[in-house]
Amino acid sequence: MSSNSMYTGFYVDIWSLGILLYVMLQGTVPFKAATMEGLHQCQLKMKIDYPISISNEAKDLIQKMLVIKPSDRISLPKIMSHPWLKNILGPDGLP
To answer: Thinking of the domain 9-89, which architecture would CATH place it in?
Structure first.
């Protein structure tokens, strides 16, 4: 949305979920800047640090959710079958 491109609800929601997952696992936001333009530039560079150690599977899921091109983001069914989420939920889909 910050790139002023057409709103693509589902894909934006996946981006938002990726941001929320990062915040839940890291306790901070993945992109920081003093201005909206600076924030946009940080997002375009896609340099994400992980100050708290998390699994490679969790990083993989976050990275697949935070892809710049909306149509290249991971789909909801693929999120639900991602190894990290399956490990969290267990074989029956419950925590």
So the answer is: Orthogonal Bundle (1.10)
Domains of the chain by residue range: 9-89
d(CA 61, CA 67): 11
pTM to 2 decimals? 0.81
Q: Which pLDDT score, from 0 to 100, does residue 1 have?
A: 46
Q: With contact defined as beta carbons under 8 Å apart, do 26 and 51 qualify?
A: yes
> Residue 30: left (phi > 0), alpha (psi -120 to 50), or beta?
alpha
Could you tell me if 73 and 17 are in contact, meaning their C-beta atoms sit under 8 angstroms apart?
Answer: no
With CA atoms as reference, report the closest residue to 50 among 87, 25, 18. Answer: 25
Instruction: State pLDDT tens for residues 18-38.
Output: 999 999 999 999 988 899 998
